[in-house]
Amino acid sequence: MGFSFAYDRPVSSLLWPRVLNTLLLTVPATVAAWLIAVPIGAWCASRRGEWIDRVCAALTTILLTVPELLLALALLLVAVRTGLFPIGGMRSPGVPQAGAWSTLRDLAVHLVLPTTALILVNLPVLIRHVRSSLIDVLAAPFIQGAHARGVPPRRLLFRDALRAASNPLISLVGLSIAGLLSTSLVVEAVMSWPGLGPLLLEAIAARDIHLVIGAVMCSTLLLLAGNLVADGLLYWADPRVRADRA
Predict the structure, then answer these.
(1) What's the rounded Cα separation, in Å, for the pair 87 and 110?
(2) Which of 53, 67, 156, 179 is 20 to 30 A from 149 (CA-CA)?
(3) Under DSSP, is residue 48 helix (H, G, I), strand (E, B) or coil?
(4) How many domains does the chain have?
(5) Are the C-beta atoms of 118 and 71 separated by less than 8 Å?
(6) Distance separating alpha carbons of residues 123 and 68, to the nearest angstrom
(7) Residue 84: which CATH number?
(8) How far apart are CA 68 and CA 218, in angstroms?
(9) Alpha carbon of 189 to those of 23, 197, 229: distances in Å?
(10) pLDDT band at residue 245, thresholds of 50, 70 and 90?
């Protein structure tokens, strides 16, 4: 990948630790965002037009209008005022000399704010996609027939309707990973998380062309890996996309 002029080191030795730190931030945020969005979106779809659906729509609209930079700064302000969470970085001073449990606990505490920022930025988009996909499926004749035969609503919603609406949601996984990667660059820079974001900004400021190309290439590879995972999940979940059953 070349040699970094600013750090006087090979680019690969600088990138791989930062890639792992970015994955450590984005993977839990992706999983948590989906675990929160699926039940909330399904609940809103089943209560379409009711007050809880309107409240959820208003809250998601407000979150969509807030820039990720402002959201990250607001979370930092909360951390400064309350003192409950560290305001930046990945480790506290003196923790590397502590035990393994103390190190993991310190890392988890530092993950709270940036992970929360990533979840709040991507959560409204996911909730709206889950809701719209399930609304179309809930109006299908087979769902109405199962409801008329006395299938419990919760079982009908989370087993049958959600499975039928899974194709567009699985395809959305790749796009959500792309959104998380672009958002994580801003969140990492604001909250001093040692990922690809601060490294890319430093490389641009120093005009370190090899490091810039390497960081952009790593972000692109992570995006391609996310889309590949989404395609693999779609192939596993839907037999209609398999060549032997076409």
Answers:
(1) 8
(2) 53
(3) coil
(4) 1
(5) no
(6) 12
(7) 1.10.3720.10
(8) 22
(9) 15, 6, 27
(10) low
The alpha carbon torsion through 164, 168, 173, 176 (nearest 10 deg) reads -130
108: its two tokens? 């988890």
Residues 121-151: tens digit of each pLDDT = 888 888 888 888 888 888 788 887 887 888 7
Question: For residues 165 and 172, what is the distance between their CA atoms, to the nearest angstrom?
Answer: 12
What is the per-residue burial (b if ≥16 Cβ within 10 Å, else e) of 32-67?
bbbeebbebbbbbbbeeeeeebeebeeebeebeeee
Nearest to 200 by CA among 210, 187, 186, 215: 215
pTM: 0.82
In the block, residue with structure tokens 């839990």:
28
Residue 193: HSE in the Cβ half-sphere, 13 Å Cα cutoff: 32
What's the domain range around 21?
Answer: 3-245
Single-letter residue type at 212: V
DSSP 97: G
Buried b / exposed e along 114-128 (16+ C-beta atoms within 10 A): bbbbbbbbbbbbbbb
- Does an H or E element contain 4, and which? strand 3-4
